[in-house]
Amino acid sequence: MIAARFYRSLSATVLAALLLALLGGCATDAAPKNDLPTTSDQTEIQRRAQIRLQLAIGYLEQGQMTTALDEVKQALQIDPALADAYSVRALIYMEMAENRLAEENFQQAMKLAPDNPDLANNYGWFLCQTGRADKSIPYFEKALSNRQYSSPSRALNNAGMCSLRMKNMAEAEKYLARAFQFEPGNPDINLSLAKLYLARGDQPRAQFYSRRVLSAERLTADVLWTAIRVEHRGGDKMAEAGLANQLRRRFPNSPEYAAYLRGAFDE
After folding, report:
1. How far apart are CA 162 and CA 156, in angstroms?
2. How far is 148 from 98, CA to CA, in rounded Å?
3. What pLDDT, in 10s, does the model give residues 64-113?
4. CATH code: domain of residue 52
5. Residue 143 and residue 139: Cα distance in Å, rounded?
6. Cα 175 to Cα 14, 158, 170, 196, distances in angstroms
7. Pick from 114, 129, 161: which residue ends a domain?
8. What is the pTM of this model?
9. Which of 146, 157, 5, 143 has the alpha carbon at shortest distance from 87?
10. Does residue 210 share a domain with residue 110?
């Protein structure tokens, strides 16, 4: 597990990875030494804690932060050593802009599961979102170095966007090109590439990737605003006006629409 509010990016970059990790479960040492741990290796206590944690993620998705925190608390009462619970609580606090508490929970999660690639990716994104983009890249690389990591495109996309935030265009393109190779149809990756080429002034490429996102019908305010900026740069007034009308109708109170109204195409 790229947006004004973390929840908007959470569903695309972090939440899916968390669900994959949680559905895989936290295995015990009872797993055979010549086999990878699976859900059946969980103890009854771990299963009960995982159920609570999945409920917490569901409430997080719905924006019910207090209820999500309560479910995490119950998961930790059942299994105090559940690293995923601290990771989820960190994400909840991040959404609530409680960055100190988010940091503490990420640190606790990493003490319990130092080799967890999803956690490394999530913490890297946290660093990027809190003004420490330069410190985030090693965590993405750590996630990518784990051969059991099932979602490398997410870490690559995050690394690309954090490199772009640091205005390191070459590194951003390298990461995002690799992400695209893994998942060419992923709307988040195509959106990131559109933003990269828009920042580089390569309007034809920016338009190519922007229109791929639009064809996927994942019309968030961020997608529409990026597409508007791309079409504005290319001088297609009709396309720009049509997209702006959609942004006004769908997201009239969004920061993106406010940016459009003040003509902030190059911010």
Report:
1. 10
2. 31
3. 999 999 999 999 999 999 999 999 999 999 999 999 999 999 999 999 99
4. 1.25.40.10
5. 6
6. 17, 9, 9, 11
7. 114
8. 0.82
9. 143
10. no
Spell out the long-range contacts of 65-71 with Cβ–Cβ below 8 A and sequence spacing 24 or more.
65/92, 65/95, 65/96, 68/92
Q: Would 97 be classed as within a structural domain? A: yes
In a domain, 5, yes or no: yes
Look at residues 87, 114, 141 and tell me which one is the last residue of a structural domain. 114
52: in domain: yes
Residue 223 is part of which domain span? Answer: 206-267
Q: Name the token pair of 100.
A: 């100190």
Kindly report, residue by residue over 23-69, the tens digit of the pLDDT.
Answer: 444 444 444 455 555 555 567 888 898 899 999 999 988 889 999 99
| Euclidean distance between CA atoms 15 and 209, whole angstroms | 24
Query: What's the structural domain count of the chain?
Result: 2
Give the model confidence (pLDDT) of 189-211 as tens digits: 999 999 999 999 999 999 999 99
113's enclosing H/E stretch is none
Three-state DSSP at 166 gives: coil
Quote the Cα angle for 220-226-229, to 5°.
140
Instruction: Please provide the size of the chain in residues.
Output: 267
3-state SS of 174-236 is HHHHHHHHHCCCCHHHHHHHHHHHHHHCCHHHHHHHHHHHHHCCCCCHHHHHHHHHHHHHHCC
Contacts 24+ apart (CB under 8 A), 25-31: 25/50, 26/50, 26/82, 26/83, 26/84
Instruction: Report if residue 181 sits inside a domain.
Output: no
